[in-house]
Design brief:
- The chain has about 180 residues and is α+β, with helices and mostly antiparallel strands.
- Among the domains are: about 30 residues, no CATH class; about 90 residues, no CATH class.
- It contains 4 helices and 8 strands, in the order βββααβααββββ.
- A hairpin with a 4-residue loop joins strand 7 and strand 8.
- The longest helix is centred in the N-terminal third of the chain and has 27 residues.
Length: about 180
């Protein structure tokens, strides 16, 4: 069953005929949608107006009461670690006294672990108030022999403290604290 047919008269223009071949009407292709519709302009203007109102309200409330952002310690630690991108175990230096302590088997701490403490540990000022030196500390677990059961080992929790001169990343002192 044929309802009708069309003949292209020109690009974007068609003559429509019914099944008997009788001319019904002339059709043309719809106009292309404009890049920016006038109704879109009205919506954009309304959105910009709302943004300005919200921004003004936030600015006024920020003046009255200070806006504070509290980050968790884990987030601060990750951000601080990202800022020390040039720091690596190869870049760390040792003072003469701390190098001597590294030769003692009970006090030996691998440089990679000390670098991780410097990168992700809690940073505080030097207890002796020396300028340019900071104390980093972190909880670590050390595998030690169990004195009650000979031949077995347990993980014992320690706090590792590292004193660092940040100007040249020299470790001045380190120690385990139970």
């Amino acid at each position: 069953m044929c309802i009708g047919y069309s003949v292209a008269q020109a690009p974007g223009l068609w003559r429509i005929y019914d099944a008997d071949g009788v001319f019904v009407r002339l059709e043309e292709a719809p106009l292309e949608a404009p890049l920016i519709d006038p109704t879109d302009l009205a919506l954009i203007a309304f959105g910009v107006f709302r943004l300005f109102r919200v921004g003004k309200a936030l600015l006024e409330s920020g003046v009255k009461t200070a806006v504070t952002v509290k980050l968790s310690q884990a987030t601060v630690s990750i951000l601080r670690g990202r800022l020390k991108m040039g720091l690596s175990a190869r870049a760390i230096r040792m003072s003469e006294s701390s190098a001597k302590h590294m030769l003692t088997p009970g006090r030996y701490v691998p440089l990679q672990i000390q670098e991780k403490v410097i990168r992700y540990g809690a940073r505080t000022a030097d207890p002796r108030k020396k300028p340019g030196i900071f104390r980093y500390e972190a909880r670590i677990y050390k595998l030690v022999e169990d004195r009650q059961n000979k031949g077995s080992y347990i993980y014992k929790s320690y706090r590792l403290e590292v004193l660092v001169r940040e100007a040249d990343w020299t470790i001045m002192h380190f120690q385990y604290m139970p």
